[in-house]
Amino acid sequence: MNRRWYQCVFCAKAKRQRQFVILPMLIMLLWMPAQAFAAKKLIPMGEAIGIQLQLSHVFVAHDVLLASNEWMKGGAVVEKINDTAVKTLAEAKQAIAQKGQQTWTINSEGKEMTVKLQAQEAEHVISFLKDETDGVGTLTYIDPETKKYGALGHQIVDATLQQAPTFLRGSIFLASIQQIRKSTPGQPGYKISSIEKQQSPLGTIDKNTVYGIFGRWEDGYQQRLPQAIEIMHEKDIKIGKAEIYTAIEGKKVERFAIDIIKASNERLEFVISDEKLIEKTGGILQGMSGSPIIQDGRFVGAVTHMFVEEPKKGAAISVAEMLRKSS
After folding, report:
1. SS3 242
2. For the structural domain made of 42-54+132-325, what CATH number should be given?
3. How many Cα atoms sit within 13 Å of 105 on the Cβ side?
4. pLDDT higher than threshold 60 for residue 3
5. Among 226, 172, 223, residue whose Cα is nearest residue 200
6. pLDDT, tens digit, for every residue of 166-218?
7. Residues paired with residue 207 on neighbouring β-strands, in sequence order
8. What's the CA gap between 14 and 28, in Å, rounded?
């Protein structure tokens, strides 16, 4: 069976006399951080979150055919309108307010070019521009000691740019699941969510890495946070029963049964075994990335991928690895 990945959406010897002193000290130095890390506790979450990144430039969202029969390619950067440099969509809209012909300077695939647009056409083109990337995922953990969070378990890749975007700032918001489009073999499903941007952000986005997004928790969550639990290191993860925490209806986080079928270093594979989850979602969905995995009361990892042809089967990264890469 073809196992294509689908990403939900996203590191001199001392003198004999001294050996008996130095060696025990070195052993203690190596042992103490390991012990401290082993006792680390995190709060497992599972809430659906809206993700917003303010991009560094104004981009063309997708190919646009101009009146001159030229194409303005998706991913191109709008650098100037007339002689006014633009960095945000608001600045671009303000620049096109003037009447008459306009000269746009754009950078497409590393080449600078200019295009002439009439005011009416410019107003049409402006609707195909963007200066932010939005998405939906799942909050993985909050560190009660540092007040930092981790989410997704993989990197945010902008669909237009086909790469991780350069961003100026970012925020996460609480989201509510309104509908579910079920996954079927060969066709990944997804969560249809409303993002509560009118409320205060839950946190900032400071890093967008291959191990997830990380930032500062802003304490904007009105519900009581769950209890912190000890993380489980890779060597302790067992083949067998576990749970994932995720939201599939409204804001409610629920627990669903899974079976871990493979554990190799920081990577895991698992199968959804919960009949309620299978009935509701068909398996794993877009937007489920970051859902915490718990085994024997300890924090194992976060969902990151699904197998497209086998939507009940997924992959995950250990939370210990996420934590190591968050700093």
Report:
1. strand
2. 2.40.10.120
3. 11
4. no
5. 172
6. 899 999 999 999 999 999 999 999 998 888 777 789 999 999 999 999 999 98
7. 214
8. 17
Name the β-bridge partners of 132: 54
Q: What is the DSSP string of 57-104?
A: EEEE-S-EE-TTS-EE-TT-EEEEETTEE--SHHHHHHHTTS-S-EEE
Q: How much is the pTM? A: 0.84
Distance from C-alpha of 140 to C-alpha of 142, rounded to nearest angstrom: 7
Strand duo 111-117 + 129-143: pairing: unpaired
List of residues 6+ apart from 211 with CB closer than 8 A: 11, 153, 154, 155, 317, 321, 322, 325, 326
How many angstroms separate the CA atoms of 290 and 165, rounded? 20
Domain boundaries, the chain: 42-54+132-325, 56-131
pLDDT 10s digits, 121-161: 888 898 899 999 988 999 999 999 999 999 999 999 888 88
**Model pLDDT for residues 207-217, shown as the tens digit of each residue:** 999 999 999 99
CATH number attached to the domain at 56-131: 2.30.42.10
Cα(57)–Cα(86) distance, integer angstroms = 8
Distance CA 168, CA 150 (A): 19
Return the biggest CA–CA distance within the chain: 88
Beta-carbon contacts of residue 58 (< 8 Å; ≥ 6 apart):
77, 78, 86, 87, 88, 89, 91, 92, 129, 130, 131
CB burial of 186-213 (b: ≥16 within 10 Å; e: otherwise) equals eebbbbebebbeeeebbbbbebbbebbb
